[in-house]
Specification:
heterodimer; A: mainly alpha; MetI-like fold; 77% helix; 0% strand; B: MetI-like fold
């Protein structure tokens, strides 16, 4: 084992950049995917078929196909469409498809959005009916009830499931290395591997970084659950 | 157009092969892991927990690259040390199957463990009281009930496993994803928006496979739950 090669400043710097890129990808995808999942979850639980079904189709397709194909579809598929290539120099709207980071982040956001929508919709269906009845009895409109009662309750209850989703997403960002010219943690390991031919050292270091990041997130979510799900914990007998 | 489509369809056969072979590895490892965790022996419990936690903390792709590139060198080191000087090559298919199987073995461990724990203990004890040997108890009492209880988790693991087979294309294995990408690059001049078209086709085939799996496993689940009190009508 030659881990001293990994510890050389330039290789450490490579892993550092990779870690920052991975975390940036994760953050962007979680924020975008999370924001869009809120209205989609409401539509998914709607009484109207024409609202519910399109969202169902969206999540079904995104959850039923490999993320790698979704990344390729955006980077190679959309990115090489004549329609988009003809426009991406002039219009801000299409310029993103030139950038590997944009393509990867778009694919990840859509993917996590689909999973988060289903998660949230599931929790919304399980909000105790009594809570909703009470809110309606207090005279809240449907919208107010959704905003004040259903959503906060559903979001709290989704927390344990969401922690799994975040960790899955962290691991999924490793697919960014399948897009050329994007250096994430896995990309850093691959470039060190191909330069020094040290597969064990390179990929084990990458694995270790992911493991530490996963652990940190598990701990953070545990704290978050303690805070936001405190009311669901069994009370200590006095 | 047709030759490209045919080659992608052919790639789908490889996806099924990789998927089923990995599933076999995963089920064997998952069973071993679950029994180890429930055995109560400290070393077995500890190693099974370490296996499950480490595997679930590292991305599939990194593990796959580690095993594919590192495993080969490691294996040859061991063989050299044992006195064999002929280097052995692990092909992408084997290392893909072994890695995916190894990863999903960790998830299967949890699924199977949960299923076994859900069977009332008294049933196993009754079996023992009748003079059955431990493996007879396992074979006659635990296993048949475990199948029913583990099926929802199993279905979920299988769906995720099947999608992760797309990663073997990054090891250079010519699976559906790899062929779709190649077809897209090759046909760029002749077919408009070829990359989009062929990749979408591969995605569609995956969707067909996941839908069929869900339907088939749902049917099996129904079959195994016959005689069980149904929760919803």
């Amino acid at each position: 084992m030659e881990f001293d090669v990994i510890l050389q400043p330039e290789n450490l710097a490579l892993f550092w950049t990779g870690t920052l890129n991975s975390l940036a990808l994760l953050l962007v995808s979680l924020v975008l995917g999370g924001l869009f999942s809120l209205p989609l979850a409401v539509a998914r639980t709607s009484r109207h078929l024409w609202l519910r079904k399109p969202v169902w189709l969206f999540t079904y397709v995104l959850r039923g196909t490999p993320l790698l194909i979704q990344v390729y579809l955006i980077y190679y598929g959309l990115g090489q469409m004549e329609f988009i290539q003809a426009r991406w120099d002039d219009s801000l709207l299409w310029r993103g498809f030139k950038e590997p980071f944009f393509c990867a982040a778009l694919a990840f956001s859509l993917n996590t959005c689909a999973y988060t929508t289903e998660l949230l919709a599931g929790s919304m269906r399980h909000v105790p009916p009594g809570e909703i009845e009470a809110a309606r009895a207090c005279g809240m409109s449907r919208w107010t009830c959704l905003r004040r009662v259903v959503m906060p309750s559903a979001m709290r209850r989704s927390l344990p499931g969401y922690s799994n989703e975040v960790i899955m997403m962290l691991h999924s960002t490793s697919l960014a290395s399948a897009v050329p010219a994007l250096l994430d943690i896995t990309g850093a390991a691959r470039s060190i591997y191909s330069e020094f031919y040290l597969p064990f050292e390179a990929f084990m270091s990458a694995g270790l970084i992911y493991l530490v990041l996963t652990l940190v997130m598990v701990l953070l979510f545990r704290q978050a659950e303690k805070h936001w799900l405190a009311h669901l914990r069994p009370r200590p007998s006095a | 157009m047709t030759p490209y489509i045919l080659s992608i369809l052919q790639g789908s056969l490889l996806v099924i092969q990789v998927g089923l072979a990995s599933l076999l590895v995963a089920v064997v490892l998952g069973m071993a892991g679950a029994l180890a965790k429930l055995s109560g022996r400290r070393v077995a419990v500890w190693s099974a927990s370490a296996y499950a936690n480490v595997i679930r903390g590292i991305p599939d792709l990194v593990l796959m690259l580690l095993l594919f590139y590192g495993g080969q060198i490691g294996l040859n080191h061991v063989l050299e040390w044992l006195g064999y000087l002929e280097p052995i090559e692990i092909d992408p298919f084997t290392s893909g199957v072994l890695t995916i199987g190894f990863i999903y073995g960790a998830y299967m461990t949890e699924t199977f463990r949960g299923a076994i724990l859900a069977i009332p203990k008294g049933q196993m004890e009754a079996g023992m009281a009748f003079g059955m040997r431990p493996w007879q108890v396992f074979w006659r009492i635990t296993l048949p009930q475990m199948v029913r209880l583990a099926l929802p988790g199993f279905t979920n693991n299988w769906l995720v496993l099947m999608k992760s087979t797309a990663l073997v294309s990054l090891l250079g294995l010519q699976d559906m994803t790899y062929l779709a990408k190649q077809a897209g690059a090759a046909a760029r001049g002749e077919i408009a928006n070829a990359p989009l078209l062929f990749l979408a086709f591969a995605g569609f085939l995956y969707l067909v496979m996941t839908s069929l799996s869900m339907w088939a496993l749902g049917w099996v689940e129904k079959k195994y739950s016959q005689g069980e009190a149904q929760e919803h009508g």
